[in-house]
Amino acid sequence: MNSLTHIDNNGNAVMVDISEKDVTARVAVAGGYISMSDEAIMAVTAGTAPKGDVLATARIAGIMATKKTPELIPLCHQLQLSKVSIDFEVCPEERCIRCICTVKLCGRTGAEMEALCGVSTALLTVYDMCKAIDKTMEISAVRLLEKNGGKSGHYVRKEKTDEK
Q: Considering 17, 87, 128, 134, which one is annotated as catalytic?
């Protein structure tokens, strides 16, 4: 028996059959950072970035990305998402912005990929909207912070979640 869930016994890529799994409430939380210059941080917080309201646009982009995840990640199931939130914390003293994406649903499979896609796209949007100010920006520490639901239960990242 093959232990790889997305490969059949002939070595072909397959979508996992989740039809026999129980429907449960599921939550996935992912986070990440974008570091940037003082000038870029000030433009974001003052609302003076050349392309407009950076965080509002990045929030919409992140939410949209969660809904498009199956189109981007091969073999990812299409999910009926119940709630998606994208939150930002501007940290001027650390010269970075922290992004957290939370995805909720009731379904047969988790939303980790959706949360990771959401946070990644939100941070990429911040980069795109600020690149005229700072080309040295760096996206880092994109990772799953927490998940709950399903057979594997509750997972919380053990390492300190606010380290970049």
A: 128
